[in-house]
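User: Run a structure prediction on this.
Assistant: Running it now.
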Amino acid sequence: MFTFLSRYWWVLEARGFLAILLAAFAFAWPARDVTGLFLAFGVVAVADGLFAVGLAIAGRHLTPAWWIPLVQGLLGVGVGVLILANPAAASVVLSIAIWAFGMGLLQIATAMRLRQDVPTGLWLGFGGVLAIAFGILCLSGQGESTVAILWLIGIWAFMWGMTLMLGGFEVHRLSQRGVF
């Protein structure tokens, strides 16, 4: 898994950057129109999913765990398309919660696979835990008000994006130093 991620570390950076852009959008977006934020979330989910699918296809010969980013990508594209098709639907928050929960589980699986190769992956595992917590918060009704939804998505997207970027930098740093 380390060889796989060290070769494509920049994909983690790109996915993290997209999440941080979503956070900035959530914090800057007017609270009276959550539909715009849902559209942005859908675009980010599709873009993130396409990055993950590309990563899986490009690296399928490097690790038997290439299916993890493939499933992440298909989940992101699927949820993103559903949200873009009907961003005003009441089920959008449920879709976001399911996406976050699934992404979190798969990111934890990636971190565990990575730790089999090198003593790293903590940032990616932490990001997975954050995604699961975000999904649970969405399902628990913490996002019933528009402002709460904006803040919840913004805070989570920023934290998740940072964990992806820190994980990518960590893998890249270790591979450049030739430690592993």
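The radius of gyration is 16 Å.
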